[in-house]
Amino acid sequence: MGKEKKGRVFTVILATMAVIFTLALVVYPKAGYEAGMEGLKVCWEIIIPSLLPFFIVSELLLGLGVVRGFGVLLEPLMRPLFSVPGVGAFALSMGLAAGYPMDAVITARFRETNQCTRIEGERLLAFTNTADPLFMFGAVAVGMFKSPALGGLLALAHYISSFLVGVAFKFWGRKDPTHLKEMQEREEIRTQGNILVRAFQEMLAAREQDGRPFGKLLGNAVSESVQTILMISGFIVFFAVLIEILHISGIMAVIGWPVALIYHLFHIHGGLVGPTLAGALELDIGSAQAAAVHAPLLQRLALVSGIIAWSGLSVHAQVASVLTNTDIRMKPYFIARFLHAFLAALITVVLYLSGMGREAARAMAPLTEHTAVLTAEGTHSFWQIASSGLSLWLMGLVVLLACSFVFAMAKRLRIIRFYARIK
Predict the structure, then answer these.
(1) Nearest to 72 by CA among 93, 57, 59, 90
(2) How far apart (Å, rounded) are the C-alpha atoms in residues 58 and 102?
(3) Which of 169, 228, 262, 352 has its CA 20 to 30 A from that of 58?
(4) What is d(CA 162, CA 165) in angstroms, rounded to the nearest whole number?
(5) Does a cis peptide bond (omega within 30 degrees of 0) precede residue 29?
């Protein structure tokens, strides 16, 4: 009864927040429309061209058995380092090439096809959730900081911290009884002999087990990939509109008071409060805002590095949706993202102070007059909006909306299924 009552209360809260968010869109129709169009532009110009080919190719490689074959070859490398099967190298490489949430899509497919245990899937998600190099070198270093040399610093910090997270999560769930049982069964059926022969045999066995003709395999790969892309695009548009509504209604400034106090305590530039909150929700928007603030370069780099590693609640929601049909939990994923963000920011500071970022700082192009004006306006607007009395009822309700959404993702977006069971 306790869980049932708690679930009903949570449903009422979510329903109320959905209604309030709808009213906010009615109150701010122009802002919501423009934010939605910007989100669609990102999807059309960046997300679809960059991710869709990787999704299709990954489905083909899985169906043809190539991934399982390479998994046998890479088992001696991945198992000692990260305690994951060799196929995890495929998730890692595709995550590096295409960025998030490619790793989650592949890990979910591994779990659905029983190529990894639940614990191994959670370990994989912990360190394969990385940004692609093109984003850090192109969009962030060149587009936002106007310095290509900073791309190397950000990428190095990002991938070193990801590797450390993977090593740390090697011990995650090692005493889980279900995991131990599955691992024991896998060891018993594992064949001995030449590793190349075993890899070839596993590839043929996986292809035979799939059984779909190539034409059907290709068609399914395209249709499933397009469906995944539409889901990702929908989250991007939703969070773009949510961030804009939170900003213009003044809620972002209200939420930022605790962050502002912490930053003041540690002598961090106050103009980074807004980008921190935006980056917690969506990494592209937060990174762009942080790069534009007229704050010390080291602080901006550390914050951007942490935002990229955290990847934003938008990506977290995408990952949760991808994992809905599996038993992989979101709790270790959240822990890994916090750890990754902290380590990435820390390593960025260490690399910068060691001299790696100073030459890049000298080569940076000065901020344009337009950027400086936007930065000044953004810095002052935080405190101006926070002190204004803009729709206090709307502020409180939308704050609850944000908190409820985070809680829903922590429950892996299984709310509908939960209620179907208790009924």
Answers:
(1) 90
(2) 9
(3) 169
(4) 5
(5) no
Interatomic CA distance for residues 80 and 409, integer angstroms: 32
H or E element, residue 370:
helix 369-387
Mean pLDDT of 331-350: 94
Per DSSP, 413 falls in state: T
Q: What angle do CA 228, 115, 416 make, to 5 degrees?
A: 45
pLDDT beyond 60 at 32: yes
Q: Per the structure block, which two tokens stand in for 222?
A: 């395209």
Place of tokens 């940004």: 131
Exposed, middle or buried, 284 (CB in 10 Å: 0-12/13-18/19+)? buried
Task: For residues 130 and 230, give the distance between their C-alpha atoms in angstroms, rounded to a whole number.
Answer: 21
Residue labelled with tokens 């305590």: 265
Cα 255 to its chain centre, rounded Å, is 22
The continuous run of DSSP H or E covering 362 comes out as: helix 356-363
Q: How far is CA 186 from CA 68, 181, 190, 315, 392, in A?
A: 14, 9, 6, 32, 58
Cβ pair 112, 101 in contact under 8 A: no
Domains: count for the chain? 1
DSSP conformational letter for 139: I
In 22-44, which positions are buried (b, 16+ CB within 10 angstroms) versus exposed (e)? eebbeebeebbeebbebbeebbe
418, 3 contact by CB (below 8 A): no
Domain region containing 89: 2-422
pLDDT digits (tens, 9 = 90+) for 261-304: 999 998 899 899 989 998 998 888 888 889 989 999 999 999 99
Measured distance CA(27)–CA(252) in Å, rounded: 17
Burial bucket for residue 47 (CB in 10 Å: 0-12, 13-18, 19+): middle
Give the predicted TM-score (pTM) of the model: 0.76
- Residue type at 50 in one-letter notation: S
User: What letter represents residue 352's amino acid?
Assistant: Y
From CA 361, how far away is CA 48, in angstroms rounded? 33
Say how many residues make up the chain. Answer: 423
CB neighbour burial string for 310-340, b if at least 16 within 10 angstroms, e if fewer: bbbbbbbbbbbbbbeebebbbebbebbbebb
Chain segment 67-84, per-residue pLDDT in tens: 878 888 888 888 888 988
Helix (H) or strand (E) holding 256: helix 251-265
Structural Rg of the chain based on CA atoms: 23
